[in-house]
Specification:
The complex is a heterodimer of chains A (112) and B (113).
Chain A: E1 5-7, E2 10-13, E3 19-24, E4 31-38, E5 42-50, E6 53-56, E7 65-71, E8 74-79, E9 88-95, E10 102-103, E11 107-111
Parallel strand pairs in A: 2-11
Antiparallel strand pairs in A: 1-3, 3-8, 4-5, 4-9, 5-6, 7-8, 9-10, 9-11
Chain B: E1 4-7, E2 10-14, E3 19-25, E4 30-38, E5 44-51, E6 56-59, E7 62-67, E8 72-77, E9 86-94, E10 102-103, E11 107-112
Parallel strand pairs in B: 2-11
Antiparallel strand pairs in B: 1-3, 3-8, 4-5, 4-9, 6-7, 7-8, 9-10, 9-11
The chains are: A mainly beta (112), B mainly beta (113).
Amino acid sequence: DAGVIQSPRHEVTEMGQEVTLRCKPISGHNSLFWYRQTMMRGLELLIYFNNNVPIDDSGMPEDRFSAKMPNASFSTLKIQPSEPRDSAVYFCASSLVYNEQFFGPGTRLTVL
Amino acid sequence: KQEVTQIPAALSVPEGENLVLNCSFTDSAIYNLQWFRQDPGKGLTSLLLIQSSQREQTSGRLNASLDKSSGRSTLYIAASQPGDSATYLCAVRYGGATNKLIFGTGTLLAVQP
């Protein structure tokens, strides 16, 4: 089992650029989660999907952030325009609804 | 407000010692609780999931217990090893329609050789 796959693993970009993070959940899982982790704020849930439908996006910091899940095997998190304060590690996780969550390796984003 | 607290924030023990990590939650109406470990610069690895109907769950040297009435869970690590050094996080999924996990702030464990 390949686990949750995220790409890229590292992203360095300049302020104002668009950033797209990608996630492939574990096959058969029907819930997908996007988290952000920083030293200051810890682990924060940004948004989660059940059966490809966004259920709770209350953690999305502002309109610059958007997430989509066009099918059961792919999701994107987009930041446009990016700002230095968006620098963090972004994790994707998946699960069967109400069950054990499995995390991907994360994408380390640096916005200069 | 539904909160999850982990005490202590950091713990250092000599190799071979048995140890207990603590997790407290404010609302007893939980659905399940999950323990994770996170190594520096890595993602979270799931260790154990304990359902609200269970009292404990075991995996190898790890044993997680759950006491809903007191709002507590413990993670017991037997015969600790330097490779157990990591940050340990507990996360609670509350009842109702939500599928969200509420995370504690973690306990940083260092096992000294």
